[in-house]
Amino acid sequence: MIACRQYFSLSISHLQNREIVSKSICIANQKGGVGKTTTAINLAACLAVAEKRTLLIDCDPQGNATNGVGIDKSMVRADNLYRVLTGEVPAGNAVRKTEIPTLDIIPSHQDLIGVEVEFIALEDREKKLKDLLKAIDTNYDFIIIDCPPSLGFLTVNSLVASDYLLIPLQCEYFALEGLSQLLNTVKLVQVRLNPALTLAGILLTMFDTRNRLSHRVAEEVKKYFGARVFNTIIPRNVRLSESPSHGLPVVLYDIGSKGAVAYMDLAKEILANGRL
Ligand SMILES: Nc1ncnc2c1ncn2[C@@H]1O[C@H](COP(=O)(O)OP(=O)(O)OP(=O)(O)O)[C@@H](O)[C@H]1O
Ligand SMILES: [Mg+2]
User: Which of 38, 234, 240, 245 to mutate to test the pocket of ligand 1 (most atoms within 8 A of CB)?
Assistant: First the structure.
């Protein structure tokens, strides 16, 4: 933790006086296993160790982000995102502390699987999350939302509640598959529900320097999306896959790992370059 602080105080000290406005970033891609949750947990943790008050919202019924910051998803029956969405619990009551003092989380619950059907007849159903977060968003500099691998109710609610969208793309075959569908959904959300939604950028994940395919995919994506691709590329790194089973973001699990350095670089890029 101290090492993380030193890293940030050395490298972003010139940004300390910037005016802070609360910003919400949705991490979405309906393709499964591309690094959404790994990015949500570790970007949130890195922003938090840079002393930004950060809230992670686990919007995926799988609850991987919840477990990944050390909260047992089976132990949050009473206060979780599902109960917030149904109106049984105010958002503030569902907020949990994590090992990083500046990082809070609203945990997920498997009952979230049902909301799509349960809320079918509800008016303004797509704005539910945005409305509920109004009560707490001023407590944070950043809100990071981890989406499920679908373009359903939960992802649309996350897009409506967000200022920015970050799309992780795995450096693998068919990386761009389904991306046009996602971008169409984003366009619809911008037109009908949230005109302020902006693409923060595309994040290349699980890059393997020894694999020629990784290089080819990265080149293709950069050719196609140009400056909208983050300069930071997340490498394939075993520490990133191990850390969730210890309930720790990688900066607390192994600060010196390539994965930790990459996510700190991503946080710095987000804080520094005026992209957001
Ligand atoms: N950079 C990386 N290096 C090594 N393993 C990674 C990396 N990023 C993610 N993983 C691993 O790949 C798997 C999928 O990652 P993750 O859960 O972040 O993807 P996801 O997009 O959230 O998946 P889902 O669509 O199921 O929600 C996990 O086992 C994770 O630990
Ligand atoms: Mg996930």
Answer: 38
The low-confidence residues of the chain, meaning pLDDT below 50, are 2, 4-20
What contacts 89, CB < 8 A, 6 or more positions away? 78, 79, 80, 83
Domain ranges within the chain, ordered by starting residue = 21-272
Give pLDDT, residue 4: 47
Superfamily grouping for domain 21-272 = P-loop containing nucleotide triphosphate hydrolases (3.40.50.300)
For 53-95, the DSSP string reads -EEEEE--TT-HHHHHTT--GGG-SSSSHHHHHTTSS-GGGG-
Residue 82 is predicted with a pLDDT of: 96
**The total number of residues written for the chain in this structure:** 276
Identify which of 241, 248, 265 to mutate to test ligand 1's pocket (most ligand atoms within 8 A of the CB). 241
d(CA 33, CA 11): 31
